[in-house]
Every structure is written in C-alpha cells, then in structure tokens.
Write a structure and sequence with these properties.
Number of strands: 36
Mean pLDDT: 94
Helix content: 10-25%
Shape: globular
Radius of gyration: 26 Å
Largest sheet: 11 strands, antiparallel
Structural class: mainly beta
Low-confidence stretches: 1-20
Number of helices: 11
Length: about 650
C-alpha cells in the first residue's frame, strides 16, 4: 500500500510569511513528533535553525543547520567569481518548499520483522546560494556563481530524520564540503552513554568535558524522563561522522566529520536520525527507521544464496575443519568459518589470499565440498589489505571453491575514499553470490536493506573483549539500534564474566542474521550440556520482535517470534534483581508451554543452568529471579491438551 501527495502547503506544516524569516513545521503521522524549521536574521545574516519535540516535551532546543563548503580553488580554475561565504547557513535565498506524505509497508528478505511499516510526512525547504541562474549561457559554459541546497525532513512515528540535498548545478562545479554545521542542543541535565570508538567501553557522562568524539548511535537520558538517540542512516558515499561537543555552547552536540568530502551534484548527505521514547525499549521497537531511510533492495534474480544462519569458528587445519563441519551439523548450525591466518600474515600487503599458506594443512575446496554434503556452508576471513589488491581475482576463485561468505577484516573506515570502496566491494560480492560480514570499526546505517547480502558487522565490543554485564545490557539501547552486530558469543571460555544463562540469552537479545556462536570454544569442550538445545533451536531471523522491558546498563528482556514459536532472552546487569515480565506478546488466554533455562548456582553441573517447564496463559505475568550478571532464556510454544 502506498499513498503520496505533494503540495506547497499542507495541514501539518505552516508557513509564516514568504519574506525572511520563514517558519515551517512538519509532524509525524501520529503527531507525537513536531519538527520546526526557521530561517532567521541574527546580526544581519540569514541562518537556519530547528527544534524538535516529542509528545509536547522538548527534546532538541533551537539548533543550527548548515554545511561549510570551500570552493574558491575550483571557482577560480573555472573562471567563476569566488563565493565570499563558506558557511552554507548564512545568506541563503529561500526559493520554495514542498511537502509530501507516504503510507506503505514492505517485506524484507529477512530481518527482525516479517513486515515493516514505512509511513512518514516530509518537508523539503529549498534555497539558492549566490546569484540567480544565468538566463543565457555564453560561450557554451555557465560561469554563474549559483548553487542550490535543500533541507529535507521526514517525520515518522518512529523518529525524525533530516539531510541536505544538493540539486544539480548548471555550472558543473564540484562541492568541497569541509564541515557539517548540524547541531543538537539538548536540554540541561542530559546524560549520554558516551563511547569514543566503535569497540570501546561505554560511560554515562553529562554533555560537558568530553575528550574527542562519541560514536553513533548516541543514546541519552533527558531530565524530562525521555530517552533520546541520535544516529546516522544511509552513509554509503560520504565520510564517517560522530558527535562532539560544540565549542562555546552548553549542552550542545555537533556533527563531527572525519574528513572533508567532495561531491558531485545532485547529491544527498546521510540522514541525521533522532528517536525519542518514554520507555527505553521503545527505541528498540522502532529501530527499523534506519532501514526505511535507505533505498530498497537492488539485487536481482534468485537470492536463495542469501541464507541467514549460525556459524562456528574452526581451527586452521583440515582435521579441525572437518570436525567443525560435523559439530555444526550436530548442533544445528549452518556454517563454519576459517578465520585470520589461513593465507598468511593478514597485516602484510604481500600476503596472497588466493593461496593457502604453506604452513597450513588446508584444502578449502575439499572442505566446502564435504560441508555441502551436510548442508553446511563455509565462510572465509580476508583482511582489507588483500581485498583492496585482489578482490577481482578472489571473488571468482572463492565462488569456484564453494565459499558462501567473506568476513572483511580490519577495514579502514572514515574518509570518503574508503567509504565508497567498502560499499562497492560489498556490491561486487553479490555478483558472485557471496555474503559479507564487515569487521572492526564499521557501524551499519541501514544499508543492508539495499544490499541484503551484507548480513552483519562488528563495530561492537563483543566477546573478543569479554565485557561485563553492565556493558552487555547497554548495547541493545545503543549499538543495536542501528543494525545487527557480530558480538561472537562464547559459552565455555573461562574469561567470560557472566553466567551461562546470560550467554545463552544472547542470540535472542542480540540480532545478527549470521550469528557466530561458541567463539573461542572447540567441539571437544561440548559435553552434551542439555541447555544448549536452546542454541540449537534458536533462529537468527524473526517474524516479529517485541522488546518487553529494560533499562540501559541494568537489564534487557526481549521476545521474538519465528513461525509459531516465541523465544525470550533476558540479560541482567551487575546487581541481582527480580523481574515481573509481561507476556502480552502472546495471545491472551491461550495456553502455552514455556521451557525456561535459568541460572541455578546450587546445581551440580559445570554450567549450572537449570531447565524447567511450566504452562502459562497468554498475558500472564512471569516472575523471574536473576543473579548478578545472570540471565534467562525461554522457548515458548502453544500447549496442546492431551
């Protein structure tokens, strides 16, 4: 279903005068969000500002918009008079505005939900910079100093997003963007879950005294009780941005660019995303806004090769790889993975990823052939140093071997060159039917809607760094808002700081279409632990997702449905607590059998996970006792009377 209507003035936005200053307003379909844009004249300059409210509460105070563009060299080279003003927030000439609505749904190839609503109201405010376009072009070339920039806003029930659009220029100039001036002035008393890089620990800090930047999404607690998250969507050809404190402005964040960006018009910058919620878990319920802000799937033909599933990391010998295949088949996994080192030192540019290292007893094609007889696929790790030199040779070779996926390792992210290269490389993999997992500092921006074979990515402090339960219960409200993460859950490794039931719940709480389980574990460590039937049964993609309850750093309870079964994951923070969980996600009054996997320190087993069964009715409250750093996992199905 899709409805769209465009006009110059609609009920949900108002225009106060056609001479500066101008004021425009757009609200979400449910009218909870109200975005107000103004063009004002402080100190003789016209500047752009916005405010944002949610359910009548202020979430972003009056904040500046704009970009900084330095084009003097290009203008001089082409004989165009220099633009005296670099700040594209000053002295822009308003030339018009459009608004629209969209009401639709779409079905992803896989995901956290079988169907996704895509409903918003939008506003596009149009400006010209410089002189009016030349009516006639002399000498076959337009040398007018004329540029255009639009501010585009979309207001969803799930959040608000805006970006800058640069329409095509007739003078053919490139635009050299040196800074993005977008600000987020937050209410006094705002606290932020600050994270200086993608795999860093998280600290709860006020908006003052930071060193450097904070990652996105950046989730904050406001004094009015709302939880707000700032993010970035559709970042495929720009530079990475984070959030920094704005100089000289209290409680204000600024979009901080990694580097300059050079663009050719027409061009869209990435979306700046703002979400708000009365309950923090409602941010999780609305995280599909990131997908909606990206283009639809561009892949054509039979896409059955895109297959979500669970993965086990193998040792790097033929014997270990074949044993890993057998273990995967036995434990309900779909893939094995050969990690760094199979082709040589990954950090050396001279390492050749078309050949197996002479020090390794491996025959990857033979492994792939054996794995396929058991319905298991094979993933390979390849460092970006090899990919950037050899990708055109690697992809046809890996397809010939039978490889199903590549994990891109130690990717360089930040500047525009590497951003474009990375997404082009992902697109190339689709031509050979190869899935992708991007590791290290890359964070998703919803691009997997456009390229659904981009299954997951790291950009998270996961079980390679062995974080504590506080960190683990922050992640669903921060990193996981923008897309799946390859956390690599362990189970038997002695360095894990949390209980086994806490670990057991992870594949439900942490969404990743390709989930690596038993990281740092080996098949020999498994001793027929009965609770691991949960990992065998749990899927990695879902028909329905229902965040039950949670507080960042304290606990998280998540329910997800696949077919007729519901799976529930509860992860607790550092303090023991009792939770009363609603089962409103079940059909009220219907009888269900719940299999619970709970911590029991008195149990005489090495993992101390008790398994219990009980019959409940849909809508009934479940009372559970959680250990410090503990958890609970549940599998729920309809109870049939004997």
């Amino acid at each position: 279903m899709k409805k769209q209507f465009i006009s110059l003035c609609m009920a949900w936005w108002a225009v106060t005068g056609w001479a500066s200053p101008h004021t425009f307003q757009v609200s979400s379909p449910d009218r909870n969000y109200v975005f107000t844009f103004t063009q004002e004249e402080p100190e003789g300059k016209t500047r752009m500002y916005y405010t944002l409210s949610y359910k009548g509460k202020e979430i972003v105070r009056r904040s500046e918009l704009g970009v900084e563009i330095e084009n003097k060299l290009l203008e001089s080279a082409l004989g165009i008079e220099n633009d005296a003003c670099r700040n594209w927030r000053d002295n822009l000439t308003f030339i018009g505005a459009d608004s629209a609505s969209h009401d639709g749904t779409w079905q992803p190839l896989y995901g956290e939900r079988k169907e996704i609503p895509d409903c918003y109201r939008s506003l596009q405010i149009k400006f010209r910079k410089g002189e009016a376009p030349a009516s006639e072009v002399t000498g076959g070339y337009d040398r007018s100093r004329t540029y255009f920039m639009n501010v585009e806003v979309r207001a969803y029930n799930e959040g608000v997003a805006f970006r800058y659009h640069f329409p095509a220029t007739s003078n053919g100039l490139f635009l050299h963007i040196t800074d993005e001036l977008t600000e987020f002035a937050m209410p006094e008393g705002t606290m932020a879950w600050h994270e200086p890089w993608a795999q860093a620990p998280v600290s709860l800090l006020p908006l003052e005294g930071w060193e450097g930047e904070s990652e996105r999404p950046l989730t904050m607690k406001l004094g009015n009780g709302l939880t707000v998250s700032l993010g970035e969507a559709r970042m495929v050809d720009y530079v990475r941005t984070k959030f920094a404190l704005a100089s000289g402005k209290a409680h204000t964040l600024k979009t901080s660019m990694y580097d300059c960006a050079d663009i050719i018009t027409p061009y869209d910058t990435p979306w700046r995303v703002i979400m708000a919620a009365e309950r923090p878990v409602d941010l999780i319920a609305h995280n599909f806004i990131y997908l909606n802000l990206n283009e639809p799937n561009v892949l054509q033909g039979d896409l059955s090769w895109i297959r979500p599933g669970k993965t086990f990391r193998s040792g790097l010998s033929q014997k270990e790889a074949l044993a890993a295949v057998d273990f995967a088949a036995e434990r309900g996994l779909q893939y094995i993975h050969l990690d760094a080192g199979w082709y040589g030192p990954e950090m050396k540019m001279e390492s050749d990823a078309t050949r197996i290292s002479e020090s390794k007893d491996l025959d990857i094609k033979a492994i792939c052939d054996y794995a396929s007889t058991k319905g298991i696929g094979v993933w390979l790790y390849v460092n970006q140093r090899a990919l950037v030199q050899q990708i055109d040779r690697l992809l046809p070779l890996y397809k010939e071997w039978g490889v199903k996926g590549i994990k891109f390792g130690f990717v360089q992210v930040g500047n525009q060159f590497w951003t474009i290269w990375l997404h082009k490389a992902v697109r190339q993999c689709a031509d050979y039917g190869i899935m992708v997992d991007i590791h290290d500092e890359y964070r998703p921006t919803g691009v997997s809607r456009t390229l659904p074979h981009l299954m997951t990515q790291e950009g998270i402090a996961g079980n390679e760094t062995m974080p504590d339960a506080r960190h683990n219960t922050i992640l669903p409200f921060t990193r996981f808002l923008c897309g799946p993460a390859d956390y690599t859950p362990c189970y038997f490794n002695a360095r894990v700081k949390n209980t086994h039931a806490h670990q057991l719940a992870m594949p439900v709480v942490y969404y990743s279409p390709v989930t690596f389980l038993y990281w740092y574990d080996t098949p020999s460590l498994y001793q027929s632990e009965k609770e691991l039937e949960f990992w065998k049964n749990v899927p990695t993609t879902w028909d329905e997702t229902y965040p039950i309850d949670g507080e960042p750093g304290e606990y998280i309870a998540m329910a997800r449905r696949s077919g007729e079964k519901w799976f529930v994951g509860v992860m607790n923070g550092l303090e023991a607590r009792k939770l009363s969980l609603s089962t409103e996600f079940l059909q009220r009054g219907k009888r269900y059998m719940v299999t619970l996997y709970e911590d029991d320190p008195h149990l005489d087993t090495r993992t101390k996970v008790a398994i219990k069964q009980k019959v409940i009715k849909g809508g009934q409250i479940l009372n559970i006792q959680l250990q410090a750093s503990g958890g609970t996992a549940m599998e729920i199905k309809e109870a049939h009377r004997e």
